[in-house]
Write a structure and sequence with these properties.
This protein is α/β, with parallel strands linked by helices and 662 residues long. The protein contains 23 helices and 21 strands. The strands form five sheets. The chain has a seven-stranded mixed β-sheet with strand order 10-9-11-12-14-13-19, sandwiched between helices. Strands 1-2-3-7-6 form a five-stranded parallel β-sheet, sandwiched between helices. Helix 19 links the parallel strand 17 and strand 18. The longest helix has 27 residues.
């Protein structure tokens, strides 16, 4: 049998296959340890699971091939137990083109979509979120699949762990959370970070079963996993399985392991799960010495072949550096006629876009706090009446669970649209957005697409002070893999949101709170704006204003005032911060020879600085005057109304900036 083969159904053969797979994991990782010691691996950090093989095999052998697993930086064993091919895994760890992830994920991020692995992950505590999101997709699709999250004991101290378990329990999702309790969170013993002796007790907080088993007994792990997976599969909800085990090697290779004694290590080596299972099979007569030797020889020859494959495989070429960052965008054909023009608010336009896309595609689901009631700013009002609570889902106040769950769901067939109550709260869930949504396609070598949208209102103007009034578009501009949208007109609120929902990429969609009540024309037809293409919203010949989000409205008002003074302003709305349409901006500047940028965020490190840098790099000789940036100062937004108004650009400041160019 190989890692690709279907698992035997007869109990005796299944238990022999368990030993075969455990020996394969052990042999591969021991070989990696030797390679690291010899300087043969292209990484400074590799994390091995020697001594923990029974957990990976016991759990994964309780799963079907189409069930999914989310794992950790110590994920080789889980991947092999689920059926990943050793040769391509080894090639990935060596960073080769033939690796499972084309050399882009490496040891900590190796994954194989074909066997239901949704990623090994270097972020402690992320696997529960990913698995919870996958389970949401399965529940919504009414498929009898189960998701499993593997994690170390240290992950149970992460907020992501608790948010994932809570939401999975509330929605009764088909997910099993597996703790590999090896006694240490990196270098810190469990007693130094957790004041309970049995981690499965934490399940009681969420109303789910919690079970603790001997993690070095593959049969015990398998029995528990079979039972808990079965109840999840029939709709009885999640469970927490703690497997008490021990890692023989350090947190990573090169770890001096000064935090534990040689005697402790030797004590646990006497509980070797591979030796223990081999003895059990021999004692039962299911295996003899010759058969046992054959299994060990098979493991060595398989790893020999994997090493040979990895060494012979080519390195990825330079062009691979920029592939798999984004999924290809679907081709769109704009209708010949967009029908009559309607007048509505931006809030209404966003609501209309959501309704239309949910009608068009049953895979679109909404997640967020109080969204069945419209949300804090009433943007989603009425959608639950048409689509029901399966597609319009109220969540707890759990930003990590909302966004992390959306990532896992997007990887498994849904198109989630998550709402974060205020853009300031993106700081709370930055990890699943920045380290998961933006990177998982790339790190998997293009195995996954992440079709999801995170909607969030931002900006000042409502007297909500510094923690509810920020404009954070430029924060995320520096994250490859994210599309950043910030509409400045009512029409584009609908047209860009429709495009974002149809995109196969993660889109962060900023909606300015003051724009919600702004009225404007919206075509009645299927108006879908291309992502990454700016719009000239007012043509002019004397000066170009590049304005972002609600500042487009401010710029248009300033342009009207300047027109009375004989200055003809062209207003360019970039619409998407990333990708940024430099060409349209350059074309405008080439015509007007003057540039003013207007944004609501602070100037330091801001969007305007990026625009000016691009123009300076490509068209500085065209400028008749130095470019001018208008934005907020280097201070938080104030509560006092007069101070709040001073914080952000207004028409008067934009007019003055334009005049300074002449």
């Amino acid at each position: 049998a190989t890692a690709h083969a279907e698992l035997p159904t007869a109990p005796r053969e299944l238990r022999i296959e368990m030993l075969r797979r455990m020996l394969l994991i052990r042999e591969l990782e021991e070989r990696l340890a030797g390679e690291w010691q010899a300087g043969g691996l292209p990484t400074a950090a590799i994390h091995l699971s020697t001594g923990q093989e029974a957990v990976a095999v016991g759990v994964c052998f309780a799963l079907r091939r189409d069930d999914v697993i989310a794992t950790t930086h110590r994920g080789h064993g889980h991947m092999l137990a689920k059926g990943a091919p050793p040769d391509r895994m080894m090639a990935e760890i060596f960073g080769k083109e033939t690796g499972l992830c084309a050399g882009k994920g490496g040891s900590m991020h190796v994954t194989d979509a074909s066997v239901g692995a949704i990623g090994a992950n270097g972020i402690v505590g992320s696997s529960p979120l990913m698995a919870m999101g996958a389970a949401l997709a399965f529940s919504h699709q009414e498929r009898d699949l189960v998701a499993v999250a593997f994690m170390g004991d240290g992950a149970t101290n992460q907020g992501m762990f608790h948010e994932a378990l809570n939401l999975a329990a509330v929605w009764k999702l088909p997910v099993l959370f597996v703790i590999e309790n090896n006694g240490y969170g990196e270098f810190t013993p469990r007693a130094g970070s957790t004041n309970i002796s049995q981690l499965s007790d934490r399940a009681a907080s969420y109303g789910m079963p919690g079970v603790t088993v001997d993690g070095n007994d593959v049969d015990a792990v398998h029995r528990a996993a079979i039972e808990l997976v079965a109840r999840a599969r029939v709709g009885e909800g999640p469970a927490l399985l703690e497997c008490v085990t021990y890692r023989w090697r350090g947190h990573m290779e090169g770890d001096a392991q000064s935090y534990r004694s040689a005697a402790e290590l030797e004590e646990w080596k006497q509980k070797d799960p591979c030796v223990r299972h081999r003895r059990a099979l021999l004692g039962e007569g299911a295996l003899d010495d010759e058969g046992s030797k054959t299994l060990a020889d098979e493991a060595r020859s398989t790893v020999d072949a994997a090493m040979d494959f990895a060494r012979r495989s080519p390195e990825p070429g330079p062009s691979a550096l920029v592939t798999h960052v984004f999924s290809p965008e679907p081709k769109r054909v704009q209708p010949a006629s967009l029908g009559e023009t309607l007048t509505m608010t931006a809030s209404g336009a966003i609501n209309l876009a959501l309704r239309e896309e949910m009608q068009r595609d049953p895979k679109v689901v909404l997640l967020g706090e109080d969204i069945t009631l419209g949300g804090y700013l009433a943007v989603t009002t009425g959608l639950v009446d048409e689509f029901g609570k399966r597609r319009v889902r109220d969540t707890p106040i759990s930003e990590n669970a909302i966004v992390g769950g959306a990532v896992g769901a997007a990887m498994n067939g849904l198109r989630p649209v998550a709402e974060i109550l205020f853009s300031d709260f993106l700081t709370v869930c930055a990890d699943p957005l920045v380290n998961q949504a933006a990177k998982l396609r790339y790190m998997s070598g293009g195995q996954y697409s992440i079709p999801m949208v995170v909607r969030t209102p931002g900006g000042a103007g409502l007297g909500m002070a510094a923690q509810h009034s920020q404009s954070l578009e430029s924060w995320f501009m520096n994250i490859p893999g994210l599309i950043i949208v910030a509409p400045g007109t009512v029409r584009d609120c609908r047209a860009l949101l429709k495009a974002a929902i149809r995109s196969d990429n993660p889109v962060l969609f900023f909606e300015h709170k003051l724009l919600y009540l702004t009225e404007g024309p919206v075509p009645s037809g299927d108006d879908v704006a291309p992502l990454g293409v700016a719009r000239v919203v007012r043509a002019g010949r004397d000066v170009t204003i590049v304005a972002l989000s609600y500042m487009v409205q401010v710029a248009l008002e300033a342009a009207q005032e300047l027109e009375r003074e004989g200055i003809d302003v062209e207003v360019v709305d970039p619409r998407t911060v990333a990708p940024l349409d430099t060409e349209t901006i350059i074309e405008s500047v080439a015509k007007t020879r003057r540039l003013v940028t207007v944004e609501e965020s602070p100037l330091r490190g801001g969007f305007g600085a990026e625009v000016v840098a691009r123009v300076a790099g490509r068209a500085h000789g065209l400028l008749a005057a130095a470019p001018v940036r208008v934005g907020a100062g280097d201070h938080p937004i104030a509560y006092n109304k007069a101070l709040e108004c001073l914080s952000v650009p207004d028409v008067e400041r934009v007019v003055a900036a334009v005049k300074s160019c002449f």
